[in-house]
Amino acid sequence: MSRMKQFGLVLSGMCLGVLFSLQFAANANKEAASAAQLPVEEVRSLAEVFNHIKQLYVEPVSDKKLINDAISGMVAGLDPHSSYLDEEAFRDMQISIKGKFGGLGIEVTMEDGLVKVVSPIEDTPAFRAGVKAGDVIFKLDDTPVRGLSLTDAVKRMRGKPGTTIVLTILRKGETKPIELTLTREEIQVQSVKSKLIEPGYGYVRVTQFQEQTTADLEKHLEKLYKGGELKGLVLDLRNNPGGLIDAAVGVSAAFLPPKSLVVYSEGRIPDAKRKYYADAPEYSRGAPDVLKNLPKGVRSVPMVVLLNGGSASASEIVAGALQDYKRAKLLGIRSFGKGSVQSIFPIVQGETGVKLTIAKYFTPLGRSIQAKGIEPDYEVDETPNGSSEPFYREADLNRHLANPNDREPEVQASAPRPAKSRPQAEKTEVPVRFEPAGPEDYQFEQAMNVLKGRPVSVKPAEQSAPAEEASAPK
């Protein structure tokens, strides 16, 4: 079995870290109908294997299971973000984009037969119990994870709210497994949070990009401006795994001049070649402009955007656009590096589906984030002594797509990378977390220094070069 069968469904409370866009389906199906022809010999081989299993395998196997497994393997072999969605997974995907689902609140993937945590969702059972990005789950209650599919593992993590499950995890730097008992909840993620730090300085955190994120952002900004004009604003995208592309465009539109180019995508089919602008039809889904009551000062207030290795996909779209236009300074750690677009294609009367990578996206200045990420203007660790950032990024995933600007082969099979050395604290069963924008948030402290013109403590000799000057990208 290959190292990474599939990368992240939103399963058992997993955030949707992909760009979800059904409008590609119609034209894509037309192209497929005209261009695709079944290879007879290969299909004959598939039928022969199917027949052998049906007749000779030691135990009976249903036709449905064999076909579903064949489809799943075919799609999973493409890249880490393409996957087959059976009935339950397809239903979960539809629910998750609305930001309400049941489970533990963790975004997960499968690696080497074990479940690996991409990111815990803020204010969920997993987050409160101290689950961290990079943790490896190798036992669910008394059941070893190895040998289970990602879907099967997540089904075990699901359950009625109020019931408990024991996660046994391995963590980098810990000598013994850690057991955490979590109580399942109905997860309803609040994607936007805000607070007035002090008179004149506001803070907004976007935890993921959902259907209501743009409208919610507008309401939070209105609230912040009720006390008067702001002198500075911090936009926190740390550990935000992404979500809907129109929500990313909407968040960007709140801070950029109207009709500015936010992001564009390139792919094989015509509808995969798109430009997304800071324009109401792009982010309001046909509804009235959800940013119509946006305070005027929002588009000119000095800004700092916080990001880290858990900032992916839609988060990188926003950060890249604001950096290209020099609308904000970026501070933190290099982002995850997911620069591909996924689309969901319903099949079998809309009860199942396939999630396929159909395009790559680019910032307004033509930068590809794929397998590289966004470099901050100020590189600042989580603490003065280093960062406990996620242990891998897009470039570390097996079969990841190459960055098109590098002119490398299209798909990369990554070898394991050596672990980075970093300061290690004494072992604790549940790690202490700092409150975002709280007194122990070192990156936020440095962001406030930027806004107030004070010295910023960046990593020595590692501050990224400023973004190229943006001249009204088209």
Give the arrangement of secondary structure elements.
Blueprint: H1 25-35, H2 40-56, H3 63-76, E1 83-85, H4 87-96, E2 100-103, E3 106-111, E4 114-120, H5 125-129, E5 136-140, E6 143-144, H6 150-157, E7 164-170, E8 178-183, E9 185-188, E10 192-198, E11 201-206, H7 213-225, E12 232-236, H8 245-253, E13 261-267, E14 274-277, H9 280-283, E15 303-307, H10 314-324, E16 329-332, E17 340-347, E18 352-362, E19 378-379, E20 400-401, E21 411-412, H11 442-451
Parallel strand pairs: 11-12, 12-15, 15-16, 16-19
Antiparallel strand pairs: 1-18, 2-9, 3-4, 4-5, 5-6, 5-7, 7-8, 10-11, 13-14, 13-18, 17-18, 20-21
Task: Describe what you observe in this structure.
The chain has 474 residues and is an alpha+beta fold. It has two domains: 22-37 and 62-188, PDZ domain (Pdz3 Domain, Roll); 192-415 and 433-451, 2-enoyl-CoA Hydratase, Chain A, domain 1 (Alpha-Beta Complex). It has eleven helices and 21 strands. The protein has helices at residues 25-35, 40-56, 63-76, 87-96, 125-129, 150-157, 213-225, 245-253, 280-283, 314-324, 442-451, and strands at 83-85, 100-103, 106-111, 114-120, 136-140, 143-144, 164-170, 178-183, 185-188, 192-198, 201-206, 232-236, 261-267, 274-277, 303-307, 329-332, 340-347, 352-362, 378-379, 400-401, 411-412. Strands 3, 4, 5, 6, 7 and 8 form a six-stranded antiparallel beta sheet that branches. The chain is globular.
